[in-house]
Design goal:
Layout: H1 9-24, E1 38-39, E2 46-47, E3 55-59, H2 60-65, H3 71-74, E4 81-85, E5 92-96, E6 112-116, E7 119-120, E8 134-141, E9 155-161, E10 169-177, E11 181-193, E12 197-208, E13 213-214, E14 230-244, E15 247-258, E16 265-266, E17 287-288, E18 296-310, E19 314-332, E20 341-361, E21 368-389, E22 393-415, E23 425-446, E24 451-475, E25 478-489, E26 492-493, E27 501-502, E28 505-518, E29 523-542, E30 547-569, E31 572-587, E32 589-591, E33 600-602, E34 614-622, E35 624-626, E36 629-640, E37 643-644, E38 655-656, E39 659-669, E40 675-682, E41 690-694, E42 706-709, E43 714-722
Parallel strand pairs: 6-9, 13-17
Antiparallel strand pairs: 1-2, 3-8, 4-5, 6-7, 8-9, 10-11, 10-43, 11-12, 12-14, 14-15, 15-18, 16-42, 18-19, 19-20, 20-21, 21-22, 22-23, 23-24, 24-25, 25-28, 26-27, 28-29, 29-30, 30-31, 31-34, 32-33, 34-36, 35-36, 36-39, 37-38, 39-40, 40-43, 41-42
Length: 723
């Protein structure tokens, strides 16, 4: 069943009040202080509390303690962040503060930039399958148009892996869970030449049966139970070489293999005309009767080289990145045991190269700090797609897109605290000029409709983006800031669709916030308010036998975010988050053309896709120290308001109601610290919640809602050791 309706406003207020009480209860007794986290959000090391950016941070310990194994878990720990697999597979949806991506073909770009160890990755299929041996994850909210540039209109996510050290380390664990889940992880760090050469290797392998049950069974379908199962393997390696005290060279590489497709489900009863003779569509959202085998074969290879040279007053950094990815999938388009519609193949290949060079000032005494850099990126993608409606048509499209992007950028800062005036203010400003060019060579063929189209087209765009901010350091523990920034996402092509091209989108963001570290570093409370003017929004629209991207929409996005960590008493840690995001179209007129040229609709005032108005995150853990070892019980709670998946905001077709998700885990650590055991339950409520939703072209007889789901209740235990 679907999750329940949104919780009452009184319940929301009670949660906020509870958070306030917890904060007020923090005393100055002998309680552990909150650890400082050093980030590179501004491409130089700084305390997170000194960076004038709204962000959510998780170090490696927090990722393990909170059970954040990847992006599918991260979305329940960060307010105003959403992540989900596309219904048709392929690219994933990543949304921050109402800004994300809707073009999931090879010609599209994300609205939230994704980086691994400083390398921008253009395909959202590249997101980490498992956060293992990770130093930290930084979620930067709001446009990052100066330092991160292209396609960061909604924000930026940085995943920073652990690097080689001069000490031997080793760790491994094995997890057993329901649905026959088995996951093994291992890492080893080996110093090869003292202070000169070291290496670090890690591996994750996981498999699990699917949550979806295909009750059609053999011989109708044969092996058709793979959807929503898990089978992936990730290997990563680093080699750190320090030939001199001033030169550092890091070589990195990783490989990913994923063999299981996303599970899709048609929600409504099958219409009688096209589905005559079909057994009823199972009412259970986890059950289907499919006759067409659904498969996925994904391979990804990543490499990077980071060279850092200390020049004395400045540091020179060069980051080269490479990624090659290939995936092929099939899909049962009608969701029944009849052979009515299916995706015969969807193949994608992409290869990208990038280079970023930065020169960064290093003086800590000089009030003037600066950073200048240059970014270059090239990508070639190829797509081939074939959808078969057995009684109507065979639709085939595809082609290639070549992307070239370059951008010089500069960021300056002037800290008046380091001058004779000693004024507690720092001024910051930055500019970036981006040039993007795309060349497309694509086609579309529908023989039943006598359609055979092709085109070769080239478009280019350039834009100046930037940011200005002022920081006021009232005390060493309280900083207030205000900023204005501009974000830009390049135009592109909806590959294999005609005309298929669309223009860039733009966003002006106005943000103010306060970052505090109170009660002798036992309470960290950060507040943010923002107002975004979002124009020429790239909105995806489905048509009867094609798709299009419209730029006609304008929206206002405003909101409030609260992040806190508190140690109210010895051994007790509480973390919380709250977001209110009012994301609505100011002006948007469009037509729903899934069946025919529908009338123009006024969608002004409707909510943006995948953006709940309210979100609440709350986590509590308590450390129990005994002579037998340390026990750490932890509860994580998430509540999200209703959300819509299409601009039409149809309450019957496009909506996921509000829902809660509660996780519990108990960790045991041996007194010597080398052995760990953990038991966990995720999604105690066991609600069926839509992760994504689409209304395909209506050739099957009536509108059919196709959905993917978040995982149901899962449980398991983990055993591990570490040196």
């Amino acid at each position: 069943m679907k999750a329940g309706e949104p919780l009452g406003k009184g319940y929301k207020l009670s949660l906020l009040l509870s958070t306030a009480i917890i904060s007020a209860a923090v005393s100055t007794s002998a309680v552990a202080q909150i650890d400082e986290i050093i980030v590179t959000a501004q491409k130089r090391e700084a305390s997170a509390q000194d960076v004038p950016i709204a962000m959510s941070l998780f170090d490696g310990v927090q990722l393990d303690r909170r059970g954040i194994d990847g992006f599918a878990d991260l979305k329940f720990r960060v307010p105003s962040f959403n992540f989900g697999s596309a219904v048709t597979g392929g690219e994933s949806f990543i949304v921050l503060r109402g800004v994300g991506n809707e073009n999931v073909t090879s010609g599209g770009d994300p609205g939230v930039a994704y980086h691994v160890d400083g390398v921008y990755l253009g395909r959202s299929t590249a997101v980490d399958r498992g956060f293992f041996d990770i130093d930290r994850v930084e979620v930067l909210r709001g446009p990052q148009g100066t330092l991160y540039g292209r396609n960061s209109t909604g924000g930026t996510i940085n995943v920073i892996t652990r690097k080689p050290t001069d000490e031997f380390e080793a760790a491994a664990d094995i997890l057993f869970g329901n649905e026959l889940q088995v996951r093994g992880r291992a890492m080893v760090n080996v110093p090869l030449i003292e202070d000169k050469l070291s290496t670090r290797l890690s591996f994750v392998g996981s498999r699990r049966d699917g949550f979806q049950d295909n009750i059609a069974g053999a011989p109708i379908c044969g092996d058709c139970d793979g959807a929503d199962a898990e089978e992936f393997y990730v290997a990563r390696g680093h080699l750190q070489f320090d030939p001199t005290e001033s030169i550092s060279i890091l070589l990195s590489g990783s490989a990913l293999r994923d063999n299981e497709p996303v599970a899709t489900k048609m929600v409504e009863p099958f219409p009688g005309v096209r589905f005559a003779g079909a057994l009823p569509n199972p009412g259970d959202l986890r059950q289907v009767r499919k006759d067409f085998s659904e498969t996925l074969d994904l391979d990804s290879h990543f490499a990077s080289a980071t060279i850092t040279i200390d020049l004395g007053p400045a540091e020179l950094t060069s980051i080269f990145g490479y990624q090659a990815m290939e995936w092929t999938q099939t899909n049962d388009g009608d969701g029944s045991e009849l052979s009515l519609a299916f995706t015969n193949f969807w193949r994608n290949q992409s290869t990208q190269f990038s280079e970023e060079i930065r020169l960064t000032s290093t003086s800590e005494a000089d009030p003037f700090e600066w950073l200048v850099g240059f970014f270059y990126y090239t990508e070639e993608t190829e797509q081939n797609f074939q959808f078969v409606d057995t009684a109507v048509f065979t639709f085939t499209n595809g082609g290639t897109v070549e992307t070239t992007s370059l951008a010089p950028f500069v960021q300056l800062g002037y800290d008046l605290r380091k001058t004779n005036s000693n004024i507690p203010i720092k001024l910051n400003g930055g500019l970036r000029w981006s040039y993007d060019k795309k060349e497309v060579d694509d086609f579309q063929e529908t023989p039943a409709f006598f359609v055979s189209l092709s085109k070769q087209q080239e478009e280019s765009w350039d834009q100046l983006t930037g940011k200005a901010s002022i920081d006021y350091h009232a005390t060493d523990d309280v900083m207030a800031y205000a900023s204005i920034s501009r974000g830009y996402r390049s135009g592109g092509f909806l590959i294999g669709n005609f005309p298929g091209d669309y223009d860039p989108e733009f966003i002006w963001s106005y943000e103010g916030g306060v970052k505090t570290q109170l009660f002798d570093d036992r309470l960290q409370l950060n507040l943010t308010g923002f107002y975004n003017d979002y124009k020429d929004i790239q909105v995806f629209v489905q048509e009867i036998s094609a798709s299009r991207i419209e730029n006609a929409a304008q929206a206002t996005i405003k909101g409030i975010e609260i992040d806190l960590v508190a140690n109210p008493m010895e051994n007790l840690t509480v973390n919380g988050g709250f977001s209110w995001v009012d994301a609505t179209y100011d002006e948007f007129f469009s037509s729903d053309n899934r069946t025919f040229a529908g009338p123009l609709e006024d969608l002004s005032g409707n909510r943006l896709n995948r953006t709940p108005e309210f979100s609440v995150v709350l986590g509590v853990e308590y450390v129990i120290e005994t002579t037998a070892g340390t026990f750490i019980p932890r509860v994580d709670f998430n509540w999200q308001d209703e959300q819509f998946f299409r601009a039409q905001n149809d309450p019957d077709l496009d909506r996921q109601g509000g829902f809660t998700k509660t996780d519990f885990r108990l960790v045991y650590e041996h007194p010597n610290g080398n052995f760990i055991a953990e038991g966990f339950v995720k999604n105690i409520e066991n609600d069926d919640v839509f992760s994504s939703l689409s209304l395909p072209a209506v050739t099957l007889g009536q509108p059919l809602t196709q959905v993917t789901l978040n995982p149901p209740r899962t449980w398991g235990f983990r055993l591990g050791f570490r040196t």
